[in-house]
Amino acid sequence: MQASTESPNRGSATATESKGAYWCHDCSERIRDVKVEGDGAPDCPTCGDEMEFERSPDSTGCAC
């Protein structure tokens, strides 16, 4: 079966295209990259540890 779309932007065509999300695996916190200001990884709002970026810019589909 072929994927119906190669675009990672599924939904509103005017939405900002996300390249992934930052995760805190200990707390299960997730922050989309488009919600983060600056170039570095944010700190987890729950525990304060640095979050990890997941999903490469070249991939398509859901970051969950």
Key attributes of the depicted protein:
3-stranded antiparallel beta sheet, mainly beta, 64 residues
| Percent in strands | 15-25%
Shape: globular
What is the residue-mean pLDDT, rounded to a whole number? 78
Low-pLDDT sequence parts: none
Give the structural class. mainly beta
List strands and helices in order, with pairings.
Blueprint (H helix, E strand, L loop, with lengths): L20 E4 L4 E4 L19 E3 L10
Antiparallel strand pairs: 1-2, 1-3
Task: Describe, in plain words, how this protein is organized in 3D.
The structure is a single chain. Helices cover 0% and strands 17% of the residues. It has 64 residues and is mainly β. A three-stranded antiparallel sheet has the order 2-1-3, with no helix packed on it. The radius of gyration is 13 Å and the shape is globular. 9% of the residues are buried. The mean pLDDT is 78.
Short structural summary:
By secondary structure, this protein is mostly beta strands. The protein is about 0% helix and about 15% strand.
